[in-house]
Amino acid sequence: MVSVTTRLPFFVYGTLRPGEHNHDHFLRGRTESEEPARMRGLVLYEGPGYPYAVEEADGAVAGEVVTARPEAYDELLRALDRLEDYVPGDPRNLYDRVDREVTCADGTVLRAWVYVAAPAVAARLRTHGKLIESGDWRSPR
Question: Which residue ranges does the record assign to the Gamma-glutamylcyclotransferase AIG2-like domain (predicted)?
């Protein structure tokens, strides 16, 4: 596991992707690069206007790897944690921020932060949620 102070890029798969409604609000002007990528070990479920990534060994999710500008990193991390209502160690979290391997379009594999459904949310989604079979929130559902 990576230290919480490590400045990893972010893997985004929903409303933070380019062209989606949270991208401009949170990422515009704060990134060095954004490139297509896939993260294995996740599946997507529909949420109320946004997706949830749930850890699942056989899954794969499409998204982008976003690298923050160094001078914007700390502010961006705080903003994304607020957006996802993530507080380290809080059992009421809807999402957990975890580091996982991601594969960029050029085949490069690196580690990135990703927000995944917290355990209680993931359990509910597995039982009652609507799976996004393609693993891509932008695909027709």
Answer: 10-138
Task: Note whether 4 and 97 are within 8 A (CB).
Answer: no
Q: State which residues form the domain around 58.
A: 10-132
Annotation marks residue 84 as catalytic: yes
Does any domain span residue 71? yes
Would you say 62 and 123 are in contact if contact means Cβ atoms under 8 Å apart? no
Q: What is the CATH number of the domain that holds 74?
A: 3.10.490.10
Catalytic, out of 34, 46, 75, 84 = 84
> What pTM did the predictor assign?
0.93
Please count the structural domains in the chain.
1
- 66 inside domain: yes
Give the whole-angstrom CA distance, residue 68 versus residue 44: 24
How far apart (Å, rounded) are the C-alpha atoms in residues 31 and 114?
Answer: 16
